[in-house]
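Re: [help] complex structure
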Amino acid sequence: MLLRNMKRSLSGVAAASLLLGASGARADWGLNLPVGVTPISQTAYSLHMLILWICVAIGVVVFGAMFISILRHRKSRGAVPAQFHESTTVEILWTIIPFLILVSMAVPATKALIAMEDTSDSDVSIKVTAYQWKWQYEYLDEGIGFFSNLSTPTDQIYGSEEKGPHYLLEVDNKMVVPVGKKVRLLLTASDVIHAWWVPELGMKKDAIPGFINEMWIQVKEPGVYRGQCAELCGRDHGFMPIVVEALSEADYSQWVADQQAASAAAAADDDREMDMGELMTRGEKVYGTHCAACHQANGAGLPGAFPGLVGSPLIKGPVAGHVDIVMNGKSGTAMAAFGGQLSDADLAAVITYERNAWGNDTGDLLQPSDIKAAR
Amino acid sequence: MSATHGGYYVPHGSHWPILGSIGLTTLLVGFASLLNGASGATMLMGIGVLITLVMLFGWFGTVINESLKGMYNDQVDRSFRWGMSWFIFSEVMFFAAFFGALFYARIYSVPWLAGEDVSTNQHLWPNFDADSAAWPTNGPAALGGEFSVLDPWKIPALNTLLLLSSGVTITLAHWALKKGNRGALVGWMVATVALGLTFLGFQVYEYIEAYGEHHNLTLGSGIYGSTFFMLTGFHGFHVTLGAIMLAVITIRCAKGHFSHDNHFAFEAVAWYWHFVDVVWLGLFIFVYLV
Amino acid sequence: MSTATTHDTHHAEHQSGLLRWVFTTNHKDIGTLYLLFSLLMFFVGGAMAMVIRAELFQPGMQVVDPMFFNQMTTMHALIMIFGAVMPAFVGLANWLIPMMIGAPDMALPRMNNWSFWILPFAFAMLLSTLLMAGGAPAGGWTMYPPLVLQTGDAFPFLIFSVHLMGISSIMGAINVVVTIVNMRAPGMTLMKMPLFVWTWLITAYLLIAVMPVLAGAVTMLLTDKFFDTSFFNAAGGGDPVMFQHIFWFFGHPEVYILILPAFGIVSQIIPTFARKPLFGYSSMVYATASIAFLSFIVWAHHMFTVGMPLTGELFFMYATMLIAVPTGVKVFNWVSTMWRGSMTFETPMLFALGFVVMFTIGGFSGLMLAIAPVDFQYHDTYFVVAHFHYVLVTGAIFAIMAAAYYWLPKWTGHMYNETLGKWHFWLSTLFVNVLFFPQHFLGLAGMPRRIPDYSVQFAEFNMISSLGGFAYGLTQLLFVYIVFQTIRGGAKATDQVWEGAKGLEWTLPSPPPYHSFETAPQIK
Ligand code: HEA
Ligand code: HEA
Ligand code: CUA
Ligand SMILES: [Cu+2]
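Output below.
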């Protein structure tokens, strides 16, 4: 492994130096904070540049003085040490001047901060709930809600397939916002702390279980903006991206209408009877998006951290116990309560799937109505 | 052959510290395994406690011997004083963490949950209003079920009185020691220990009452139960340690280990006892009263 | 036990063999133990950093599982901070403070032994968690709940090892305070003490004040997990963010614990090789004290994104920015000490100069992080990682290296190999910048920290950073070689060692006698 890495590193040096020479050739290859597309991100960018240049200037003065004395006041050049070692005047000077510089930074910073924390007068409110490891978006006034999962295939992650251009920064369902409107996000989490961050939107806020944090964005240009969870949240912290699509107002209304129609159709599912085949296909899909991150696609789990489900006595046992742990989770562990996250049909499907996949073969079959009864 | 350097006593080699490390580690590994539900853990813990006790007896025994042999000059005595003072300060900071938790919960988190932070309350805890959030509270999910608090003017007030009196008796003991009146010294010390033990007795009684059906106040009673038991519990633990130290010092007083001008060990324990006393006042005010 | 008891407390002066090191109460022996332990931990923590860099060498998952990656990040930080840097400073304090203030030994020698001998047990406990069900702790060194409560069997071991480290640090700090206030030779007034002693005195106060708070914080984690309490659980009226407040009340002073002794070291070395007294001695002392004071009221700058009230954010932003002032005073004083001096550039001086430049760079990025509205962008990205490695690696570690080269001839009586020392410096400086400088770009461009895999636009800089990391790591093997070569032999060192060296420790022979000052020296 090491050797292979070392070999790779050699070619890496070559590649890297080439790239350094030809920087700018690739548009998405950033060196600096993005300017972004919201008022907040643009304020942050200009503040960032201001402080950066102030620091560079101070650096030039301090390191300049230091290098002059390193070059000129060296013994090999016959320098004789002076003996001065105190001056109250300069001490006072170099206390006051940096202080004034700091004040000049603090003033614009204070203004920016006050503007950023003002979430009043918003046009759209979206409640964002973080889970290990996915996001849920609920549009409070439109009655729409959905989950957003990483959509990069595992094969790309483990190297058996070429990585796409949006590797790790792509999801199945994007969060959609209207351009130009003040969108208020209400952030919370169901299990551990996460943080919602899209660099080009300029704001990062923690999603904390049991509390709601507010932030606002106002996207100026239509487009797709990508970010990811920015607070360590367990095994797949690196794999819970955020994708925001900003649409013109008309497109946004259309999208809202489509979503509303789709959720009505999904609700109808909960009142249907399904056969084994349908349950298993659907179950496999639900399992893949919601459960495989921990219990693994083959149901083997990760010994020590996440139990395997193959031949698990709980699954082989009575249905009720199985339904209970999936719907209510187990507090103090990573096993979340999925009762509130999945529809009756999805729960019925995934439980049926677990009871019959990987050779569990219990033959049990659950209907959405069974789940409704268990709620 | 004790070497002294410029009069400052520097011991050569000691096996007590390493024994202490082994003891503490055994104790903690045992406790950790117990929490993880491993078998044989209690046994391991027991061994750890035993080793630690042997270490404490041995180490203090050595120090007492050296002290009695007059190996410690004034400078060594001053080192001990500084050391003890800063140790007590570190204990103060340990309690500060828990007081900090209490104040944070009361000033920030509970009011936020109860509506000061509008969206948190509205979207997550709509039933948690200013009324149900009034301190004492076990939070929006009413963890641990309904509970009631203990009347501060019963046992806690009595306990305050006991500890304050013990502060007086130990000072009287100190005066007696300075005057060289051993009888009075031992008498006041016994009184101090007795007051400390009575305090502990009441505290145990209070805990039993709290956990009982009537109050249903447990560690699991939300943030109130958590802060209440952690603060009073750690305080009680410190009183226990203090009482043991007082008891040892009482025996040493009886044996005549201390002279009117050389009795650091006595003073160290007295300081510690006063510290425990002051913490209690903080508890009485902030945990029981307001 | 039986052999141990016959040895009793006062055995022969120079007990030989292994037991000498186990039972020793001598400040130099204990100092050596601390330093060697710290070196070992630096390599253990460094090896974990190499795992991190290997996984991040290119996008995709190739070397380890994400869970193990998080364990590496967490353990790397805990081991480097509590196992490498802090013990290295305590080791230096043990060796140097008694020699610098003219004392025979540390004030409380038996407790001194215990402070050290707790550490190997604490770290054995921590490292053993790598083998447990569920693996080592993986919630980050900051141990935020509720995530950390998902730790497997390792959890109580993590908590208890932190308790042990705390006990060790508190005892060590008390010893330092008592030694300095009570053991100074006649005439050694406070304002005559070398700056290393001053910075350590102030560091020790910080330690005594904040280590117990950390102990309290992790105790609450323990009870939340096992005893039903709900300090950090909103359902019971607590708040996960409350942990962060308590943790950073410890954590911020902690980072100054990791840098103040380094300031002291640099303030000893620069005057020696500039052959000119330290400029602004008293303002250096006041600046150190101001930094320590301010460090108690800035903690929430680590938490700008948790949703604090606006006034809180403003307060912590202003207070944090203020720290630049006393720190600047220190930097300016160092530069003025060099100004019109007569400088030579032996290895310790090189490391000290490297420290001044690169620590300042780390300080600048710290100042940028302090600006709350922009920290919303920087927070939890590699920009932060770059910041703290500049202050920790090119700051604390470089100062420790400087100290090692500076005092090694005094400790061993031998000169180290100057050519190799210079190689060590130049290679380290080159590679450490290849390692950490690109991380600024990564962070600004949007790469979060604590992730085992990243999107493709971060590939180039990560590869450069990893290469720098491997090279920097390998370079440190040179250091080990130099140190052991010097211990085993080499040119005889004079008492003063360095032409411009001033201070009591240089009046003693090299190596110094077992008991530094049998009779206290008189200081004019
Ligand atoms: C040795 C350790 C050390 C030191 C000395 C510092 C020093 C400073 N740190 Fe740093 N910091 C860390 C270790 C350290 N830090 C660590 C470990 C973390 C991350 C923890 C984690 O999350 O895991 C961190 C994180 C961290 C954050 C949180 C970032 C985030 O998570 O979002 C912030 C924010 O304010 C910050 C600020 C500062 C500041 C303002 C200083 C100041 O003290 C710097 C002052 C110095 C200078 C400014 C340079 C010299 C001055 C001049 C030349 C004078 C003139 C200058 C001006 C007027 C600008 N640090
Ligand atoms: C004093 C503290 C200290 C020190 C010295 C270091 C030293 C190093 N650190 Fe780190 N680090 C932290 C404190 C420190 N660190 C902290 C607090 C965190 C945050 C953790 C968290 O998020 O919770 C962190 C996190 C951290 C990360 C981010 C991980 C993440 O977010 O997922 C990275 C990534 O590059 C990193 C790298 C390194 C490297 C390459 C070194 C190098 O300097 C190490 C060099 C040393 C050696 C390499 C050992 C010596 C050599 C050998 C063992 C020989 C073998 C060598 C080879 C095989 C090449 N550290
Ligand atoms: Cu969710 Cu990190
Ligand atoms: Cu800080």
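The longest helix of chain B spans residues 74-116.
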